[in-house]
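Let us work through a complete example step by step.
Step 1: write down the sequence.
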Amino acid sequence: MIKVGQYNTLEVVKIVDFGVFLDGGEDFGNILLPKSSVPEGTSLGDHLEVFVYFDSEDDIIATTKQPLAQVGDFALLKIVGISGVGAFVDWGLDKDLLVPFSEQRRRLEVGQNILVRIYTDKASGRIVGSTKLNRFLDKTPAPYQVGDEVKVLIAETTELGYKAVIEDLHWGLFFKTEAFGKLFVGKKLKAYIKEIRPDGKINLSLQKAGKAKVDDLADKILTALERQGGFLPLSDKSAPDDIFKAFRTSKATFKKTIGSLYKKGLIIIEKDGIRLNDN
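Step 2: predict the structure and record it as tokens.
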């Protein structure tokens, strides 16, 4: 079955001067892949991976262009136009994506980058975007356990810290004390489940918890030292951003870890960095 607004692998069933037609099954019949998107050497019977969506005439069409996101995704997209029906954002295709007024949390302006959820409107069948993210999250019980590694997307800032979308399914929160490094709306990164509260809300961390966090970081530091000839220009005096860029950890955890490695005799802490202890 064809998934509109997503990638599909379809068979070439007809070749014409202006492109090729792909088998869209009983629901859609033949779907045009315009000549500009047809890979060189395409023949009848070939199977092509294409993105299927509606063009400016609301006709079903295929493309080999890669959109910035697809149906079911959350994405940070730029507003390129405003009309009487809503705002239009660039999602990497010839036809811009509509964010209807009814799906906007606040007034939008051209040039803004906004986080949207792309979905198919059941009433019209059209692919649209929404900034009302609550509609799409926390609809199922969270299957996570404390300590699980998850993929997250920073969605907005609050007085408490940063709200994030976990695995495209649930809300999570980084408290300010956990928000070291450069976090910003639209950033994708890995995180860890720190706490699942009795009310179901989820707290996140950028680091593994407790001893596992330190042991994991110690292995990474030793591996990095070996790869860099035994020396790294990082120490307990380094800037937090430099430490985070290298190991995605806080300065406090880094200091604790190299202190432990030093006590074990594995490294030497020098003025301008750390060095493997050859002895």
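Step 3: interpret the result. Residues 210-276 form a domain with the Arc Repressor Mutant, subunit A fold (CATH 1.10.10.10).
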